[in-house]
Amino acid sequence: MFLISKLSSNREKLCFVAIAILLLMDSCFAQPAITLSKSSGPPTTKLLVSGIGFAPNVGVDIYFDTTDETLVITDTNGSFHDAAAHALASSYPGKHWVTALQRYGGQGAQNPFLVFTNWSQFHFDTSRTGLNPYENVISKRTASRLRPTWSATGIDESFASPTVADGLFYAASQQGELYTFNAFSGKLVWSQYAGGCSLEGSPAVAAGIVYDQDLCGFVYAWNARTGSLIWKEQLSNTGSSSPAASNGVIFISAANSQKAVTTLYALNAKTGATIWTAPIGGYNGDASPTPSLGADAVYAITEGQLFALDAHTGNQLWTYTVGHGRGAYAAPCVANGVVYASSVDGNVYALNATTGTLIWKYATADQVSSTPAFANGLIYVGSTDNNLYALNAYSGALQWEYATGGAIYSSPAVANGVVFDSSGDYNLYAWDADTGALLWQYAVTDSLFAPSPAVANGSVWLGGDNVHAFTVAAGDVPGSSASDVAPDMGTLRPSGQF
Question: Are residues 217 and 104 in the same domain?
Answer without folding.
Answer: no
